[in-house]
Design a protein that fits this description.
The protein has 171 residues and is α+β, with helices and mostly antiparallel strands. Helix content is 48%, strand content 12%. Bound molecules: zinc ion (2 copies).
Length: 171
């Protein structure tokens, strides 16, 4: 894999540095991680490295399309090395779990906008929002608890902190 990464960097005329190599490895190992998560992975792999160095490496890799940055509204950017196929993402509203999802129809129909307004479009970012299986399971369990304790007012009150705890977890 290291040879692969080295070649990719060289093909793009980029200097091969330990930080860039480690950042590419980290992105490959943990798709859809944030820059902060990747920083700790890079540190675990090659020791002391500044947060800025990892951010810089990510910026260069994104610029050269070796890494793709996915920006979701209201959250930190996430990075992945699956580039150039215009795939989409499925994101859990509750815990942020992110999965890749292929184009709904064929290869890249989303790039053919109905009206391009004179733009040359090179990427269409589609995000499917929802609730992941783990969060659905958790919600189903606590709903069951709520119904069971509903008959008496006292028990319903007792069950309330549980519901709050679930809400806290969600944000
Ligand atoms: Zn979830
Ligand atoms: Zn992806």
């Amino acid at each position: 894999m290291d040879n692969d990464i080295r070649q990719q960097l060289q093909r793009h005329g980029l200097q091969v540095t330990a930080q860039r190599m480690a950042t590419m490895r980290a992105v490959a190992a943990r798709p859809h991680a944030t820059a902060d998560e990747l920083t700790s992975d890079v540190r675990a792999a090659i020791g002391t490295v500044s947060r800025q160095a990892v951010y810089d490496a990510l910026a260069i890799l994104v610029q050269n399309k070796l890494v793709r940055r996915i920006q979701t509204p209201g959250s930190a950017g996430r990075y992945e090395d699956r580039v150039g196929d215009n795939h989409h993402h499925l994101i859990c509203r509750h815990c942020g779990a992110t999965s890749d999802i292929d184009c709904a129809v064929g290869a890249t129909p989303c790039l053919t906008a109905k009206e391009a307004h004179g733009f040359e479009i090179d990427e269409a970012e589609v995000i499917y929002w929802g609730r992941c299986p783990a969060c659905r399971e958790a919600a189903a369990v606590s709903e069951k608890v709520d119904t069971r304790t509903a008959p008496t007012a006292k028990l319903a009150t007792a069950a309330r902190p549980r519901r709050f705890a679930r809400d806290d977890h969600r944000t």
